Amino acid sequence: MTLTVQPAPSSGPVITSGTSITARTGQAFSFDVFTIGGSATARLSATGLPPGLSADPVTGIISGTPTADGSFWVTLTVTDGAVTTTSTLELTFTSDPAIPVIISPRETTLEAGQSFTYTIVAPSSDHSGTTFSYIGTLPSGLSFDPATGIISGTYNSHFQNGGALLGNVQLIATNSSGTATSTLAFFQQVSGTAKNISTRLAVGTSDNVLIGGIIVTGNAPKKVIVRAIGPSLTQYGVPGALQDPTLELHDHTGAMIDFNDNWMDSANEQAIIDSGLAPSNNLESAILATLDPGNYTAIIRGNNGTTGAALVEVYDLGTASLDVSSNAQLANISTRGLVQTGDNVMIGGFIVRGDMPATVIVRAIGPSLTAYGVPGALQDPTLELHDGTGAVIGTNDNWQNDPGAAQIQADHLAPTDNRESATIVTLAPGNYTAIVRGQNDTTGVALVEAFVLQ
């Protein structure tokens, strides 16, 4: 095992994600290459990767399943405009169960003034005992126990910049059979954000197709998968599922930037499979896209004018940038469609991910859609918010009756019609569902929206 000290370039991106990793042969592997001092346009190339691994030039993720034992010296090259930075990464793969392999996370988060504990986990069939060490500097307030491999303490810096890199150390685990290495990066804790949004609705024709809106904010592109799900809903007891949904993705000008009918026909079929988000039915549609900050629209139709219940989903695959200063998130997700009764009300789901709770404003818009030329708008929408257990955690009919109405106004997200619904909630990481109905079982076109406040 060799640890390399990399010289820092005078300007441009610096690769700071570590220099040596040990892992198991034949097991799924993933490692994030990241930089500081670069921009969102930086791109990665990697030469000398072991068999079974590949590198994503935009996200910097090296992943795959290694097929051979040995140590491989990988040359990492990051190009950012006219500046090029190189670094060497040693990847060692072993099928010897006696050699320890560190499997604890390679990234963790710190919050100033809060106690912190991290344990190096390095399983081995050699029970003679494993000792631990590290190379580098721990963030202020943390200490290390070499016997137990525990890093603990209270981070006492007052530096507050959500997501910032606070430090990076090389971890080492040793027993009588060998030595393994890994990295540990410390980041400033960040608030929660919407990680996935989905809406189920009856898809009609003409103005009553299913329309999903996405807003990406930040200083870098966002990598997403958009899906149109239909026939597989039947196994979940959804009646009248749309049997062959098609998917269009439009930019803020209305121009179509991608289209899919049957996800296995996508040029990104393998990448969709690798993401773990491939639809379970070949007739369903999916688009993998890297979206610059801005507004986007996904439209679900039934092939050949067919109708039925369908689900539009947007999955956040992360910021499409190598640099840790880059940030992109789904700031708003919305869906427009025809709200009916029974099983055909509008059901929107979203997942909050992160280290801390997220403050979200959820809205149900109806009558004000008429001003935008939408026919048959729902005149009095009601809103229910459910947690992951199905329990109701918030309701609203007419946004001015919400306890948070003043804050909704202060955030400039008050609906323009008093009959429309809105609620502001602070949500712990988890799964949530918003249900939009028409008051007294009325029907019409409505919009459900979720805004993540910064």
CATH class of the largest domain: Mainly Beta
- Continuous helix count: 2
**Based on the structure given, which CATH architecture of the largest domain is correct?**
Sandwich
User: How much strand?
Assistant: over 45%
Oligomeric state of the chains present here = single chain
SS-based class: mainly beta
The whole-number mean of residue pLDDT values reads 85
Query: How would a textbook summarize the main sheet?
Result: 8 strands, antiparallel
Shape: globular
Query: What Rg, in angstroms, do the CA atoms define?
Result: 25 Å
Instruction: Please bin the fraction of helical residues.
Output: under 10%
Give the tally of structural domains. Answer: 2
Report low-confidence residues grouped into runs of 5 or more.
Answer: 1-6, 159-163
The N- to C-terminal Cα distance equals 44 Å
Tally of DSSP β-strands: 32
